[in-house]
């Protein structure tokens, strides 16, 4: 939960509500409470510790596909970048022993991040392994899911909900 601004319990509930909107049952949501994994945009998590947690979760749930952040963390958030680093660190184990594939969500510059659907032609022309364009219904569902995270909906996240390409289009690269 990380307990950023002492909101760990609130954020756990928001996560479950958001997942429910997306059709993910609470029983499939795992929240890790560990003092060395604080929810803090300035803190890089320990690669080995995080990789151990992620690998255990993948093995316990027979997961064969993981989608995570790339080295830019989409927003430069240190925790997001740590997830990428941990998966890259354990990638050989995932691929060789578990048959698990890892895709990373490609970070884009600030201009592209906020041109919404207008980024489709640009993304289509650039290299990538998968390009997902959400339908209007899927976009509205994603917005409803994001709105469940009330404790994190600062002014700039409202702009994100309105204009971010990530609410409509996502480019993935096989790690």
Automatic annotation (TrEMBL):
Pfam families: PIG-L (PF02585). Its EC number is 3.5.1.89. InterPro entries: GlcNAc_PI_deacetylase-related, LmbE-like_dom_sf. It comes from the Eukaryota. It is an enzyme of class 3 (hydrolase). SUPFAM superfamilies: LmbE-like. Transmembrane segments: none annotated. One of its GO terms (cellular component) is endoplasmic reticulum. One of its GO terms (biological process) is GPI anchor biosynthetic process. One of its GO terms (molecular function) is N-acetylglucosaminylphosphatidylinositol deacetylase activity. Belongs to the PIGL family. This is N-acetylglucosaminylphosphatidylinositol deacetylase. The gene is Pigl.
């Amino acid at each position: 939960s990380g307990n950023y601004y002492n909101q760990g319990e609130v954020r756990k509930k928001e996560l479950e509500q958001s997942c429910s909107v997306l059709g993910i049952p609470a029983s499939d949501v795992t929240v890790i409470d560990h003092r060395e994994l604080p929810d803090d945009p300035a803190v890089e998590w320990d690669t080995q510790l995080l990789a151990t947690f992620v690998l255990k979760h993948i093995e316990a749930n027979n997961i064969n596909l993981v989608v995570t952040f790339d080295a830019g963390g989409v927003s430069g958030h240190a925790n997001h970048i740590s997830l990428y680093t941990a998966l890259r660190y354990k990638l050989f184990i995932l691929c060789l022993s578990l048959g698990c594939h890892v895709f990373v969500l490609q970070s884009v510059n600030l201009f592209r991040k906020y041109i919404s659907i207008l980024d489709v032609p640009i993304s289509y022309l650039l290299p990538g392994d998968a390009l997902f364009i959400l339908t209007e219904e899927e976009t509205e569902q994603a917005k409803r899911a994001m709105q469940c995270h009330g404790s994190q909906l600062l002014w700039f996240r409202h702009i994100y909900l309105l204009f971010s390409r990530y609410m409509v289009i996502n480019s993935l690269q096989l790690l």
